[in-house]
Description:
Helices cover 13% and strands 30% of the residues. It has helices spanning 113-121, 143-149, 160-163, 170-174; strands at 22-25, 38-45, 48-53, 57-61, 75-78, 82-91, 101-104, 107-109, 130-139, 153-156. The radius of gyration is 17 Å and the shape is globular. 33% of the residues are buried.
Amino acid sequence: MDLNIEWLKIKTNNVLPEKGKVLIAEPLLPDYIFSRSVVLLTDEIDNSHAGFILNNYSGMKVGDVMEDFDGMDFDLFIGGPVEHDVLHFIHNYGDFITNSQKVKGNLYVGGDYEDVLNLAKNGLLDPNKIRFFIGYSGWENGQLKDELSENSWLVADVNEDFIISEHSTMWKRSLGFVESRYNIWKNFPEDPAWN
C-alpha cells in the first residue's frame, strides 16, 4: 500500500521567525522536549533565536524549586533544554517589574526577580498574566532556519491572550492561527502505531 502523507508536510506560510511569533511543532517531531510544542520566540540577534516552550508543564509549582515561592500557586514549565538552573518568566507586568524586556504588545520577558517576588507575596500576581519556566530554547546562527527548511516547525503570529493560556490544549489550539490545511493534524495520533 502506498500511503500519501503529503498532508502532513509543512508548506511554508512565509512567516519569518521573529520575536513575538510562535513556532508550532509538526505532529511527528521526534524530540521528547519539543514534541507537539508551541514555542514563543522572545529574542532574536543576528539570526540566532531564543524562547520558551509554552505548553511543557513540569507537573510542579515554582515553590517546589524556589524556596522564596513556597506555598504559592504558580505552575512551573520547562522552557527548553538550555539553562535549567535559572528561573525565567514571561508576563503582562511591564510597568511593575523593572528591567523587563518587551516582546510585543503587553507581553514582556524577564525583569527584576525581587519585584516579581514582592508582587507574588502581596497577592498581586495573577497566574493568568505570568508564566514561569526552568530552561529556555535556543538556536544558534542559522540553526532555526535549517530546522524550518526541514519542515520541523510552522511559524505563526498569535494573539497575546493565547500565549499565557491553558497549556494542555495549546498545541491543538495553535493550529487555529495557521492555514486550515493543518487542521487534520489535530486528530493525528502522537504515535501512528496507536491508530
